[in-house]
Batch of 2 targets.
Target 1
Amino acid sequence: MAIFSSTFASTHPVPHVVTVAGSTVIGRIRKRNEDALSLVPEQGIGVVADGMGGHPGGDVASRLAADAAARVLREAFVRRGAGEGFDTCFLEAMEQVTRAAHEDIHARGRMEPTLRGMGTTLTAMILDAETGGWVIGHVGDSRAYRFRDGGLEQLTRDDTWIQQQIDDNVLQPEHARRSPFAHLLTQCLGLEEAPTPQVFAGRGEPGDVYLLCTDGLVGMLDEEVLAEILGTRLRDAGELNAAIQALLNAAVEAGGHDNVTAVLLRLD
């Protein structure tokens, strides 16, 4: 299990420090890893994607999406003009992320007909070392969480049939995780109809840690367990690498039914 991590400090008079780390494992059941991640630590960028299992080229779709997201956000970071607000710049860039990823997947499918119909989830985040601001872009059922003061808060909304049933008060959240339809997506990148992404912004506080993960993690571990692991590892080891390794190991030990990917971004 290779873990990638780096730290970036801004040149702001009272700088924040952003640390980014991530890793992925195949798990115990799958024959290949259809998850992908991209990290650009010097710009506070983290991305996870989960290719659609059972479809052709799920691993190709997730890799294309993760690479496209990192590329578009890097380019926006470089283009950002003096005085241009962080939210203004990167809310627009996140909209471009999903369009670019969707188009890249379609283009590859046209080039290689055996890959037509491939799809993927995508959750991307950029965390600003200067202001502590962040922007998230999301399609599918990979997730973004904020870990603060020992509590874990889900920031994204799953694009799933189950989530629609919960929103309509047809199903209670405690029953959703065990449903055979838990991973039935209502939209993703790569299919015929372009998705409508969730794109939103916020402000972090020093000490906040953001978790981006595929459903191979949350499908194996309850949020209370995730929070306990993060709290213990970040307190005892103080490094994101130890927390990521503990998260992935726990998901595999709990069954490892799917590929497992986690990215952590910390603001200090």
Target 2
Amino acid sequence: MATTYIDVADVRKEFSLRHNRSFKEFIVAALRGKALEKDTFNALDNVSFTVDEGETVALLGFNGSGKSTLLKCISGVLTPDAGSIRTRGRVAGLIEVGAGFHPDLTGRENVYLNGAILGMTEQQINDTFDEIVAFSEIERFIDTEVKFYSSGMFLRLAFSVAVHSEPEVFLVDEILAVGDEPFQKKCLAKIEQLKGEGRTLVIVSHDLNLVSSICKRGILLEKGVVTMDGPAPDVVTHMRGQE
């Protein structure tokens, strides 16, 4: 019987569209004896599904569908307003640029900081440090504070730490946002390696050909609601029919 590595149950996430109200609006509302209406939207609306060990899943949907929000909730970057998300094993990935990195620390120091956040011991980081730096291709700048890094350098190092943390669950938001084309190909090869090792992968990407080649299963979100869950090529075909 397959082991469930991700269990998403009745998850809701609401965001406020408007944070500032004018003084006039408060006065008018008070005189009328009415509360100001909330300007919010449901990014995720009672989303439920499970992902088993070794599955490769694409979260699909057009802009504003909630897929990146869902991935951030699974990773722990965001907290659902309702429902629950349970994960098994070490969860790592490239979700939010800057998560787990401190701008005033050097690349070297951030490797140890981010590795610790991902659950690696100091010895594990020591043992893989040279591999992490070599993969990122920023050896010359490893002792420079990361606030001076370009976005590409930052992403390279973040991705490298994540894939070398030996995660049971690997989450990626837009793989092809990582560096230039040669580095993108290296990242894809590493993801294929993780897939071959039986790791559980959840990927968000607008590149439908890419997710069809990597992922066996697709979950389609529309306005925060799961509308389709099946073989990735079938979900991609369905999406293309809506374009």
